[in-house]
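Standup notes
- DV: blocked on the single-chain target, sequence here:
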Amino acid sequence: MRAITGEIASQPSLWRNAAAIVPSVTGQLPPPGESAAAIGCGTSYHIALSYATLREARGLGTTDAAIASELSPHRSYGRVVAISRSGTTTEVLRTLEGLRGRIATVAITAVQNSPVALAADHSVVLEFADEQSVVQTRFATTALALLRAHIGDRLGAAFADGEAALGKPLPVEPSKFKQFVFLGRGWTVGLANEAALKLREAASAWTEAYPAMEYRHGPISVAGPQTLVWAIGPVDPSVLAAAAETGATIIDAGSDPMAELVLVQRMAVELAEAQGLDPDSPKHLTRSVVLP
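- DV (later): unblocked, structure below
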């Protein structure tokens, strides 16, 4: 069995583990009312975006998200949350070093005593969610489960839907499609981007992701019978109806968005294997980007 297959299957139990440790890390994460930013690269940025949007929507304080190399030096925050599975990503490390002594920082990582963990004022280490596969799955969703639980989300539905997503058949045969489009709204825009990235990384697929209402402003022009449009979380029905009129296939299951991502991860692995690709070690990718 490939490493990624077992890592995908472990997610619901790890989400429970993450929610359980929230009381022990509450003092390290941004408290209600504190302005914050969340940073990361690649998958970790998508999780940062989901968290930032959700936290601000809950009325817990102004919360920005930024790709680590693009965090504005002209803004001030009470705290910056840096997400890095390996704890070695150069852009994250450089940003934390630049913030030292000016802004409080906390790293969420899978590796104890990694450079990123040591560069931050505090660290939350999710060693139980570390991965062998280059393609991130369980660390990302476990970090998001931790952050969702910390801001007060009840995750019972996510646990149940995640387990169901492991046992049910895939909603479509992915090899029938040439284009995969993922739509989100609010905090699920980050997860839509992450869904697209999984298929792009693991299966070299043509994938796109958009805030749902933006899809009709140009991108829908290339949709057709070989397009799959997948709603990650609630999406305006009129957008999905317009996509259906192009001949595209629509998936709108209504499960917790993290559980939808589990299904997409499974689909990415199936599509990769159907093409003879190795989803554990995609071409041109490494576990972490470490720059000289």
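- Follow-up: Residues 3-153 form a domain with the Rossmann fold fold (CATH 3.40.50.10490).
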